[in-house]
Every structure is written in structure tokens, then in C-alpha cells.
Amino acid sequence: MAKVPYVDKDECTSCNVCVDMVSGVFQMDEENKAEVYDPSGGSESEIQDAIDACPVLCIHWKE
Ligand code: SF4
User: Fold this and answer.
1) 5 phi/psi in degrees, rounded to 5
2) pLDDT digits (tens, 9 = 90+) for 22-50
3) How many CB atoms are located within 10 Å of the residue 36 CB?
4) Residue 51 phi/psi, 5° resolution?
5) Does any ligand 1 atom lie closer than 6 A to the CB of residue 47?
6) Domains of the chain
């Protein structure tokens, strides 16, 4: 099975970087926190780039 990312919303600062980078996977929820709405909407390397770019490092892979 492909790796699935998730956002630790308590840490998210609503900076929008992940949504800008991989809009097929991440979106902002009604509270302006990032969330994963389609884990298959981007490649693993695209998602990893967003994980690395998040300023508070609150995007993780589910184990
Ligand atoms: S990059 Fe990180 S802090 Fe910024 S919106 Fe996405 S999850 Fe939140």
C-alpha cells in the first residue's frame, strides 16, 4: 500500500505552503488548518517535498 500522509492540525500555522505545493493532496479545512483530502493526489516525492517544506514540520507519514 502507498504511504499516506497526515497533518498534525494542532501544530499547523495555516501558512498554506503544502496546499500551494501539492494541491491534489492537501487542502485547508473550515478552520483554516491543512488536511489531507486525497492521499493519492500527488506522488510520494511531491508529498515528501511538502513535508520537508512545512515550516513547523507538522506533516507526517502514517506508520
Ligand atoms: S505547510 Fe505545514 S504549517 Fe503550512 S499549512 Fe501545511 S501543514 Fe500547515
Assistant:
1) -90, 160
2) 999 999 999 999 999 999 999 999 999 99
3) 18
4) -60, -45
5) no
6) 5-61 (3.30.70.20)
Residue 12: how many CB atoms within 10 A of its CB? 21
22 touches ligand 1 (CB under 6 Å): no
Identify whether the C-beta of residue 60 lies closer than 8 Å to the C-beta of residue 10: no
From ligand 1's centre to the CA of 1, what distance in Å?
Answer: 25
- 12 Cβ below 6 A of ligand 1: yes
Contact (CB, 8 A) for 34 and 27: yes
**pTM of the predicted model, to two decimals?**
0.95
Measured distance CA(55)–CA(37) in Å, rounded: 20
Distance CA 63, CA 14 (A): 24
Fill in the amino acid letter for 26: F
